[in-house]
């Protein structure tokens, strides 16, 4: 893209660099995938709050493999089946001929590893031992590489019930770098945000530590939810949150701090 269209390449980088936090979402196939991987790196090395979802989770794994584990050319077999380092691979039940019919779909249970005592994402989920979230994927992290990831600071804190599939990753020594193989957006609601999103926004506003210090409770000002009891109020709140997460850098004057999370 740099040589094809340098102006839009630099625009895209500019847009990324001014964000307070980043979501790398799900998707299929190779279109835009190298950009997703570069975005994961940007967030990792610059301490930017980051949430990867499904293909975004797999992009974070590939980025870490290439740049931290030095596994040159590491990739997903969905994108490049001949890769020397297949760190994301086809799941046995995935059949590419059947239009997604045999993908891993629907609500599934994820177990938090008992060793994940310092995990931010586990605390955001209320320190539960297990959670249920919705899935839609055909590829998974190659279990042969898990030891290497974990020894180098990428922890797989959530796994499936057979403890074979990696569901949630988190980086040591980062303000908020979380990625999930499932789709938390399916169970997220405006007044009940899904924990991975809640953590992302709090980290973007540098409020995650104080949220934990209060036992994962919002402050009294944040609890004025009965104020937002009509649909118009709710729409107003959502718009303010979207504006602030993109543009606002001044806590004291923000609509975010005065009306939703302080
Ligand atoms: N929903 C998604 O993002 C799917 C991710 C990836 N294409 C997979 O099938 O595993």
Automatic annotation (TrEMBL):
InterPro entries named among the record's database cross-references: Class_I_gatase-like (IPR029062), CTP_synthase (IPR004468), GATASE (IPR017926), GATase1_CTP_Synthase (IPR033828)
Domain spans labelled Glutamine amidotransferase: 13-201
Top-level division of the source organism's lineage: Eukaryota
GO biological process: one example: pyrimidine nucleobase biosynthetic process
PROSITE patterns with a match to the protein in the record: GATASE_TYPE_1
Pathway involvement of the protein, from the record: Pyrimidine metabolism; CTP biosynthesis via de novo pathway; CTP from UDP: step 2/2
Reaction equations catalysed: UTP + L-glutamine + ATP + H2O = CTP + L-glutamate + ADP + phosphate + 2 H(+)
Membrane-spanning residues: none
GO cellular component terms, A-Z: cytoophidium; cytoplasm
Pfam families: GATase
EC number of the protein: 6.3.4.2
Keyword 4Fe-4S: no
Molecular function in Gene Ontology: ATP binding; CTP synthase activity; identical protein binding
Keyword set, alphabetical order: ATP-binding, Glutamine amidotransferase, Ligase, Nucleotide-binding, Pyrimidine biosynthesis
Family per record: Belongs to the CTP synthase family.
Protein name: CTP synthase (glutamine hydrolyzing)
Organism of derivation: Rhamnusium bicolor
């Amino acid at each position: 893209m740099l040589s094809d269209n340098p102006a839009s390449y630099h625009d895209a980088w500019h847009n990324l660099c001014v964000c307070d936090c980043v979501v790398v979402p799900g998707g299929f196939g190779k279109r835009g995938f190298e950009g997703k991987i570069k975005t994961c790196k940007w967030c990792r090395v610059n301490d930017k709050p980051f949430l990867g979802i499904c293909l975004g989770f797999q992009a974070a794994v590939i980025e870490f493999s290439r740049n931290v584990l030095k596994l040159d050319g590491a990739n997903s077999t969905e994108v490049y089946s001949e890769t020397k380092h297949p760190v994301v691979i086809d799941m046995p039940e995935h059949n590419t001929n059947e239009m997604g019919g045999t993908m891993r779909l629907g609500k599934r249970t994820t177990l938090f590893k008992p060793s994940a005592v310092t995990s931010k994402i586990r605390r955001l989920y209320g320190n539960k031992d297990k959670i249920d979230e919705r899935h839609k994927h055909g590829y998974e992290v190659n279990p042969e590489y898990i030891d290497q990831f974990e020894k180098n600071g990428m922890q797989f804190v959530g796994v499936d019930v057979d403890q074979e599939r990696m569901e949630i990753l988190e980086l040591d020594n980062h303000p908020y770098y979380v990625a999930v193989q499932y789709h938390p957006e399916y169970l997220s609601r405006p007044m009940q945000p899904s924990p991975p999103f809640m953590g992302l926004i709090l980290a973007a506003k540098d409020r995650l530590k104080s949220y934990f210090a209060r036992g994962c409770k919002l402050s009294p000002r944040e609890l004025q939810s009965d104020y937002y009891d009509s649909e118009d109020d709710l729409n107003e709140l959502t718009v303010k949150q979207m504006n602030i997460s993109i543009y606002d850098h001044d806590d004291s004057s923000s609509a975010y701090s005065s009306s939703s999370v302080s």
